[in-house]
Amino acid sequence: MKINLHAITLENKGAFKIAHGSRTHTDTLIVGLEKDGITGWGEAAHVPYYGIDVERSVREIQSFAKDSFLDQNPSHEAFNDFLVEKLKGNHFAICAMDMAYWDLRAKQAEKTLSDYILSSGLLKQPAGRIPFSSFTIGIGTADEMAKKAKATDFPIIKVKLGTAEDDKLIRAIRKATNATLRIDANTGWRTSEAIYLSEVMNENGVEFIEQPFARDAYEEMSQLRQSVKAIFIADESCKFEADLEKCIGAFDGINIKLSKCGGITPTLRMIDKARNVDMKLMLGCMTESSIGISALSHLLPFVDYADLDGALLIKNDPAVGVKIVKGEAIFRGGFGHGGGLK
After folding, report:
1. Residues 130, 327: contact at Cβ < 8 Å?
2. Residue 231, beta-bridge partner list
3. Rounded-to-integer distance, Cα 64 and Cα 186, Å
4. N or C: which terminus of the chain carries fewer CB neighbours within 10 A?
5. How far is 324 from 308, CA to CA, in rounded Å?
6. Cα–Cα distance between 312 and 319 in angstroms, integer?
């Protein structure tokens, strides 16, 4: 198996501000796994918040690129275990390689990725309806955010919050649009204000609240969940598969991102585990190309909510693949996930 690595800087259409900070670009790593004339594609956008850069991922993948194990057609579990051992906590590199391997094997089986997942036996949950994706609005002034909310043709809007004026911002946005609203505080709320802000969100018809508190504030989240009637979704608090257990009782659902948890293989286990304890499932993305969005889109039949607008937020998408149009995933056809470099 030949490994091709492509380090690319994705340029945002505008500065994207969340509670963690502001970004104008994101470095991503695109992996091509080539065997017998077929290439499987994977990606992981290296968001700075997690402290891993693309150069590290390239270096670590290259260190085992000629390992004979790669030519043994391992199972997906064995391949992911191999990556976890070799990459030692680099969930971005694990994700890109794992995703590419799923795409390669689906193409070899002449199946779409979603059909191949169903046939793999690694997911016990049946396929359901395909949810629409939200469109994300970064933090700005009330007027700026309201204007963006009014301009989008998506029926669902995800609003980034975590400021000192969240009540003012959500009221301005609700006044500008009748779209379904979801909010993401990105750990930006203080416990002292959370009940008040949650009630403001309820008053303005917010469907759910994502990650109000810091990553490890599970006890505080449990208390908030008991105090307010709202749906709370974990993001930063559910980074890895092992975090899911901590989220039970503290959150109503989890936001799974492939690049956070290490690819499709652990994601399938997380889907089954979450369903077994009646938790809601959301599929999220980073600011990434159409390769990552394509792979994610094939997991849509297995989740409740989606936020897959990452490729729409950049101006230099180097790839083709699934398109998100007015919130709906438009598939290209063909085998695998349908994404690839232009």
Report:
1. no
2. none
3. 35
4. C
5. 7
6. 12
Q: Which of 224, 312, 244, 332 is nearest to 13 (CA)?
A: 312
44 and 86, same domain (yes or no): yes
Take residue 278 and report the two structure tokens written for it: 């009646």
Q: How far is CA 7 from the centre of its chain?
A: 20
Structure tokens at 182: 């979801």
In terms of domains, do 191 and 249 share one? Answer: yes
Q: Can you tell me which residue has the tokens 């906590």?
A: 89
Residue 124 lies in a domain: no
Q: Which H helix or E strand runs over 78?
A: helix 76-87
Write out the two tokens for 112. Answer: 């779409």
User: Of 77, 110, 143, which residue constitutes the final position of a domain?
Assistant: 110
Rounded-to-integer distance, Cα 70 and Cα 296, Å = 24
Structure tokens, 220: 């505080």
Assess whether 63 and 140 both reside in one domain. Answer: no
Q: What are phi and psi of 3, to 5 degrees?
A: -110, 120
3-state secondary structure (DSSP) of residue 207: strand
233 with 310, same domain: the answer is yes
Q: What is the mean pLDDT of the chain?
A: 97
Q: pTM score, two decimals?
A: 0.97
- In sequence order, the 6+-apart residues with CB closer than 8 A to the CB of 282 are 210, 233, 253, 254, 255, 256, 303, 304, 305, 306, 307
Phi and psi, residue 282, nearest 5°? -120, 140
Tell whether 195 is covered by a domain: yes
Number of domains the chain is built from: 2
User: Over the stretch 113-168, which tens digit does the pLDDT of each residue have?
Assistant: 999 999 999 999 999 999 999 999 999 999 999 999 999 999 999 999 999 999 99
